[in-house]
Amino acid sequence: MNTQLADPSRVLPLLEALPYIQRYAGQTFVIKYGGSAMEDESVVRNMLQDIVFLAAVGIRPVVIHGGGEGHYAADERGGCGCPVCERSSGDRFGFDRDR
């Protein structure tokens, strides 16, 4: 028998999530992902596992790049020409006018 399946610490979160899984099955989730969350390999791995889980339970994840200082620094060096706006909070975001 697989002991991971019998582990209550793994089963309880799924039971708690079940009403939300049922409610949002068939819906599209847009996930903004970028910045410091992309710098730690374990965070990236966990994020990808969560995205795979969402798809497995019938939720359609769409991941968009959320930017981050590394992204903006690379853009300034490479000059892709994407406009970058700054919000009053200081957060920056870019967009492609042609799409």
Comma- or semicolon-separated keywords:
single chain, 99 residues, alpha+beta, two-stranded parallel sheet, two-stranded antiparallel ribbon, 4 helices, elongated
Could you describe the 3D structure shown?
The longest helix has 17 residues, at 8-24. The protein has a two-stranded parallel ribbon with strand order 1-2. A two-stranded antiparallel sheet has the order 3-4. The protein has 4 helices and 4 strands. The radius of gyration is 18 Å and the shape is elongated. It has one domain (3-94). The model has no long low-confidence stretch (mean pLDDT 77). A hairpin with a 5-residue loop joins strand 3 and strand 4. It is of the alpha+beta class.
Helix content: 40-55%
What is the rounded distance between the termini? 51 Å
Percent of sequence in beta strands: 15-25%
Structural class from helices and strands?
Answer: alpha+beta
Alpha-carbon Rg, integer? 18 Å
Overall structural domain count: 1
Shape: elongated
Give the number of helices: 4
> Uncertain spans, ≥5 residues at pLDDT below 50?
none
Instruction: Specify the biggest β-sheet.
Output: 2 strands, parallel
How confident is the prediction overall: mean pLDDT? 77
* Chain oligomer state: single chain
